[in-house]
């Protein structure tokens, strides 16, 4: 799509350059000579990227101009994916999006997350027990990928022993969309089929779980259709499974390279619920979240045209020097930390309270039970494409063997 952008950038969020050097890439975007908070990239058919905190803050509130809606004519993603049904509520705007959110708010408020604290702790203890005596572990699948997957499935009321199967489909859908579109679409079909089976299994015996509430709660005086239920549950899986794992893995890699930071964490482990905010800011999983411009408009000095796509760079905005002094420094005592890891505005993350609880519980376990872990860098594997979520697939470590908790 032609554009008269003032600030044109050579930026591709699916490129390994971003995956391997995101600090440098963000700096080159952020410290441009005109001080632009956004720019136009010609990659993938063309899109705007917004990285400045103030501009992104304004864009996420203005859902009338920056729509989350997609359609067959204007498919989601940069590049466009094969059109799949809109996820609920993330691909909707306005009142209906808020109405959909209300269906699940009882499950995603701070009180509900606090109520799950004991169970989250128990899952964490059991996971660590399973490898603590060995003195080595593959922390992704043995801990930080397993934990949010189990919690999400338990909230939905689904069989959590199948977490690995669900996670593999979610990973393929999120990470392989550009590199292996066919494999990714096959995973989507597996997800669709398995969710459909959960719907039919539950139809006549609803229980006390998130998915049953989705099935029994009317929206505008009608129950959700099977397609809507599937698209809602799928988003809970996508939001729940990959993101918390991403920030945990990213954080551990940073800590392994910084002995002073590791010691600070050991010394302040009781402050973990506050400390994790700094890791959400600096090591957040990013997220290729898009909007579509609904009408020609001027925005922060640029002329946006109807139909253009916009990449919301929450992870870059959380490192904007105008909002965070010394943004590249990991300061676990940072006072003002209004990071954007969970987004902002009408689509602000529903799972943030649970994510914080899981992240804090896992980090506390690590820095009390095997704080001397050493990353085995030869075995570290990132997901190749970080355009959707910046995360670690495999993270092997060694440590002084410990004892199981009874
Ligand atoms: C560290 C972990 C997490 C991060 C960084 C994160 C990040 C985000 C972000 C940035 C958004 C805003 C999307 C937008 O503006 O388009 C979002 C929305 C959402 N997240 Fe999360 N998320 C996390 C964990 C979770 C968990 C654990 C769940 C559920 C179990 C979840 C469920 C959702 C849902 C359902 C939405 C859509 C809300 C709406 O559209 O109204 N997230 N998340």
TrEMBL record:
Pfam families: p450. Belongs to the cytochrome P450 family. GO terms for molecular function: heme binding; iron ion binding; monooxygenase activity; oxidoreductase activity, acting on paired donors, with incorporation or reduction of molecular oxygen. Gene3D superfamilies: Cytochrome P450. This is Unannotated protein. InterPro entries: Cyt_P450, Cyt_P450_B, Cyt_P450_CS, Cyt_P450_sf. It comes from freshwater metagenome.
